[in-house]
Write a structure and sequence with these properties.
DNA polymerase, domain 1; 17 strands; alpha/beta; Beta Polymerase, domain 3; Beta Polymerase, domain 2; five-stranded mixed sheet; single chain; 569 residues; 24 helices
Length: 569
């Protein structure tokens, strides 16, 4: 949680500096630092103790000092002073999608709008209409942005939920009194977004465990404190519920509190047909307890093969489990490489060598270094001349490797007509081309769909990255006829990406399953902008599992030779 707290502080500093019109390079430095800290797989406290803060890309002496100050005192003096220089609510307004610092300054200077509620009131009273530079369409987008912001606050992204749950579970499982412990609920089912955290455990000293739980560092407020069940609210306003159950009921409770609701109803109906009763305490025949210690024995008793938590949504999985016909879901061990990662050649925080070494440490056989193309100048897109230097560097690196290959690749922009950002004579030299939309999100449904389909038809476009463009809590998916895109991808042998970056997770699980049904292969990419962010692959695998994907549906599971053959058009 310290990672997310400090990243949030740095993002807030960048926002205030934007409002005040400060130096753009200083603003970008804080934004980059926030992004890299949020993507760390290690705890920032551990890095500080080991004096390794400056190994984080974008962290120099000044920012390292601010991180240490926060870890020691819970605040940063310079940040507090900066906050006091602008109305507090203005920072909140910057969180609204499509609202930038210029708009915030205008709203404050002309209408004295200082916060979200003031902006909503001004919109209802039509005060924005006619204001310099603000048109009816802009007002409509601001209104939609407020709804997106509120929706994002109601739920958290899967990666954030994992980090929070791990902090609680990590602290609790160290207690001698805790025997078994697990997350439950929608987090265990790996839903792309999560509302609350559910934790289940067994202990012979439940009161002592509950006393510890409600006093853990992330807790802001105790909602309920009992001997076997307690609820708290964290500093990030997330509710966390913790239950202690008897050991003999742990499996039944885990099954029940994992859900989903529809899945549980279907299981109860199946149990009734067999003359059984199933609830969070166990499986009973009459009043006699007959199972409940683990989930496996319960499924077996009901005549089912074990159903992975990710599939428990009552979407046909129970019927398949009756005949032991469930798919053999993708696992992290099946992944042989990452097909979307950035380096310092564009906007990444680590060199090709550093990204390569990190990928090898993960046990991969290859990594695609997909730096941005020339049109995306804000992200340091590479010109044709720079590409030659990058290619030469990668060839040199590969000569010194055994059993591993760095793929010469690019994330190539799709323009407003669906053309790729490099000419064909440039594209044909890449091992892998990942095509992506980075602008024109508000085009019509027909235009956006046509852009992506045209990209699919390019013989050198192997993968369409983050196909719907959504950023959780920031931007909704753009208006796209995804069914048409999926069919075009199938027809042209184009892979669609499951982008594993926590805010994206795009395609989502439902669309992954539809892609599988239409014969479209998926490509997993962490979209890592630092070596630590390569760890996001586990989130992509989680979503793939919810989408019923098997190893053969995902090209990252192929050997290098199989991969390059599979994407050929």
């Amino acid at each position: 949680m310290k990672n997310s707290e400090i990243a949030g502080v740095f993002r807030s500093i960048a926002s205030i500096l934007e409002i005040k019109g400060e130096n753009v390079f200083r603003i970008r430095a804080y934004e980059r630092a926030a992004q890299n800290i949020a993507g760390l797989s290690a705890g920032i406290e551990d890095l500080a103790r080991a004096d390794k803060l400056r190994e984080i890309p974008g962290i120099g002496v000044d920012l390292a000092g601010k991180i240490k100050e926060y870890l020691e005192s819970g605040k940063i003096k310079a940040y507090d002073e900066l906050k006091s220089s602008v109305p507090e609510g203005l920072i909140e307004l910057l969180e609204i999608p499509s609202v930038g610092p210029k708009t915030v300054k205008l709203l404050y200077q002309k209408l004295k709008i200082k916060n979200l509620s003031g902006l909503e009131k001004a919109i209802r009273q039509h005060k924005l209409r006619g204001l310099f530079g603000i048109k009816d369409k802009t007002i409509e987008n601001i209104f939609k942005g407020i709804a997106i912001l509120k929706k994002g606050r109601e739920r958290m992204a899967l990666g954030q939920a994992h980090a929070l749950a791990n902090e609680f579970i990590g602290a609790l499982e160290k207690l001698p009194a805790v025997e078994k412990i697990s997350a439950a609920g929608s987090l265990r089912r790996q839903k792309e977004t999560v509302r609350d955290i559910d934790i289940l455990m067994t202990s012979r000293k439940p009161k002592a465990v509950m006393t510890k739980f409600v006093r853990l560092a992330p807790v802001k407020e105790i909602l309920a404190a009992g001997q076997t069940k307690s609820s708290v609210r964290t500093k990030d306003d997330v509710q966390v519920d913790c239950r202690v159950v008897e050991e003999k009921s742990f499996g039944a409770a885990l099954l029940y509190f994992t859900g989903s609701k529809d899945f549980n109803i279907k299981l109860r109906q199946l149990a009734i047909k067999k003359g059984l009763k199933i609830n969070e305490y166990g499986v009973f025949r009459g009043d006699k307890f007959i199972a409940g210690r683990n989930e496996e024995e319960i499924f077996k008793l009901l005549g089912l093969s074990f159903i992975p938590p990710e599939l428990r949504e009552n979407r046909g999985e129970i019927e398949l489990a009756k005949s032991d016909s469930l798919p053999r879901l993708l696992t992290l061990k099946d992944i042989r490489g990452d097909l979307h990662a950035h380096s310092t050649w564009s906007d990444g925080g680590n060199s090709v060598e550093e990204m390569t070494e990190a990928a090898r440490t993960l046990g991969y056989s290859y990594i695609a270094i997909t730096d941005h193309s020339q049109g995306l100048k804000i992200a340091g897109g590479l010109s044709a001349a720079e590409l030659k230097k990058k290619k030469s560097q990668i060839e040199k690196i590969n000569k010194g490797l055994r059993g591993f290959k760095v793929l010469y690749a690019a994330e190539v922009d799709i323009d407003s007509a669906g053309r790729l950002d490099y000419r064909d004579e440039v594209l044909k030299n890449f091992d892998l081309v990942v095509a992506a939309i980075h602008s024109g999100f508000k085009q019509s449904r027909e235009q956006l769909t046509k852009r992506v389909i045209n990209a699919c038809r390019n013989k050198y476009a192997h993968i369409i990255a983050h196909p719907t463009g959504r950023l959780w809590g920031t931007r909704e998916a753009y208006d796209l006829d995804l069914e048409q895109v999926l069919r075009a991808a199938a027809d042209t042998n184009t892979c669609l990406e499951l982008n594993a970056f926590s805010q994206r997770l795009d395609l989502d699980s439902a669309n992954c399953r539809r892609a599988k049904e239409l014969g479209v292969r998926l490509a997993l990419g962490s979209d890592a902008h630092s070596k630590e962010q390569l760890a996001a692959m586990k989130l992509g695998v989680a979503v793939a599992r919810r989408g019923w994907l098997e190893p053969g549906d995902v090209i990252n599971t192929f050997t290098l030779e199989e991969l390059l053959k599979a994407v050929r058009k």
